[in-house]
Amino acid sequence: MDNKLAPFSLPRWRFTTWLCHSGHDVPDDIRVALIGSLFGTLPIFAGGVLNTIAVSIAITLREPTPAFMAWVIMEVLLCGTRLILLVAAHRAARRGQPTYTDVYLLLGVLWGASVGYGAFISILSNDWIAATLSCLSAAAMVGGICFRNFGAPRLVAIMILLSLGPCCIAAAMSKELILTLTLIQIPFYLVAMSIAAFRLNGLLVSTMKAERENDYRARHDALTGLPNRAGLIHASQTRYKAVPGKRGKVAVLYIDLDGFKPVNDQYGHEAGDLLLVMIGGRLNALKGPDDMVFRIGGDEYVVTMSVPDRNDAAAFADRLINEMSAAFALTSNVSVNVGASIGVALVPDHGFDVLTALNAADKALNVAKAMGKARWSLAA
């Protein structure tokens, strides 16, 4: 699965890691995508910031007491810091640097507590205009909390608890008996919205896993598990997108098996399929850790590798010729021998991208096959 957004750092603190837990079997790339979602939807974030600051200021103008003034200061500091951190995190992500995820999540929790604090002191002030404004603001924030943080359902639950929970405490402390209804309403609302957040998160993770699996199947050969032609195209657009500089080149080796059809004819397609899998395994064992092997056709493979110069590509082609000619034991009683003809091309010598070099390697392969079996040829 591709994440088109710049990657944001996973949390490292025990508490923030717990907040963002989405299941034990969630792959790392999906976890990164879920964390990225917490840094998105800037308009919703900005709307929430303006709302809570405006409400706290308006109420403080009605009730200019130290408690309300402290609320305004907390809102301005928390919201301002979160906004600055959000912008800095996006810039850091684009540069591939750590994105302050732990601090950002902690500030979100503190912001939820600040909203709850405002509702708490407003209810106890006995100013019902102030109480109405603060409680409406807190309730409105729940929608934004759920929408922005669906990637971390535990964070949603904690922020809702801190935003609305103090209303229950204030109601219990108030002399107004009717407010005790909130002791039923708010816990019910908290549980309902938290369940909804967990279900939405589960649905999202399932969808992302399915997308990831479909993407994998589309780019990998079902028989050998190697990347296929679509995987080669993707690698050329991502992994090998940058044209190598003076320090090295990318060698593209186009491999066609010699003598594969007689194996199929003599031992059957199951034996032929097993041989293709074994060849893929042997190629994987020969390549370097940063190189790639693709199966792009019936008995056609491609190896891409970073090399200092063409001499290293030539040496690897010689090694492939020798290794591919060694016997393959299909069963305890059946061993077969095949060979390989190879066309070699280099980026940027024979093209400024892998696909262009592949076309050059294909032409070189035809030259190698014309010269006889178990040979390689460098593109002109």
UniProtKB/TrEMBL annotation:
PANTHER family: DIGUANYLATE CYCLASE DGCT-RELATED, GGDEF DOMAIN-CONTAINING PROTEIN. The lineage of its organism: Bacteria, Pseudomonadati, Pseudomonadota, Betaproteobacteria, Burkholderiales. The chain crosses the membrane at residues 32-61, 67-89, 101-122, 128-147, 154-172, 178-200. This is Diguanylate cyclase. Residues 248-380 form the GGDEF domain. Keywords: Membrane, Transmembrane, Transmembrane helix. Pfam families: GGDEF (PF00990). NCBIfam families: GGDEF (TIGR00254). InterPro entries: DGC-Regulatory_Protein, GGDEF_dom, Nucleotide_cyclase, Rev_trsase/Diguanyl_cyclase. Gene3D superfamilies: 3.30.70.270.
